[in-house]
Amino acid sequence: MIPEYVTERTMICRSCPICDNVNEICNASLYLNPKTNDVEVYPKKGYIKGCGCHLKWKIANPMSKCPAGKWLEYVKKSET
Fold first, then answer.
1. Which of 17-44 are b and which e, b meaning 16 or more Cβ less than 10 Å from the residue's Cβ?
2. I need a labelling partner for 8 at 20 to 30 A (CA). Which of 19, 25, 42, 57 fits?
3. Within-domain flag for 65
4. Can you give the pLDDT of all 80 residues of the chain as single tens digits?
């Protein structure tokens, strides 16, 4: 994984209102409206549930995706 992607993903996650920065997990007890960053404790139309993943592992995995769609897709640079 390219370090720039890891840095970018880390910054996005840490600024997300459902990120538990103390335990470094995406809080699976909360729901996020990805357009407004509004947070709810109950399911609501247009809201995405936090995935509950440990961010250290998820961020570094190029195949992982943010359930709220906040990450750009990882594109491996071809070596020419």
1. ebbbeeebbbbeebbbbeeeeeeeeeee
2. 42
3. no
4. 688 889 999 999 999 999 999 999 999 999 999 999 999 999 999 999 999 999 999 999 988 999 999 997 766 654 44
Domain membership of residue 31 (yes or no) is yes
Determine the pLDDT at residue 37: 94
In the chain, the number of structural domains is 1
Residue with tokens 């720039």: 4
**Which pLDDT value is given to residue 23?**
94
**H or E segment to which residue 8 belongs:** helix 3-15
What residue numbers bound the domain in which 36 lies?
Answer: 3-60
Question: Could you give the CA distance from residue 17 to residue 29 in angstroms, rounded to a whole number?
Answer: 12
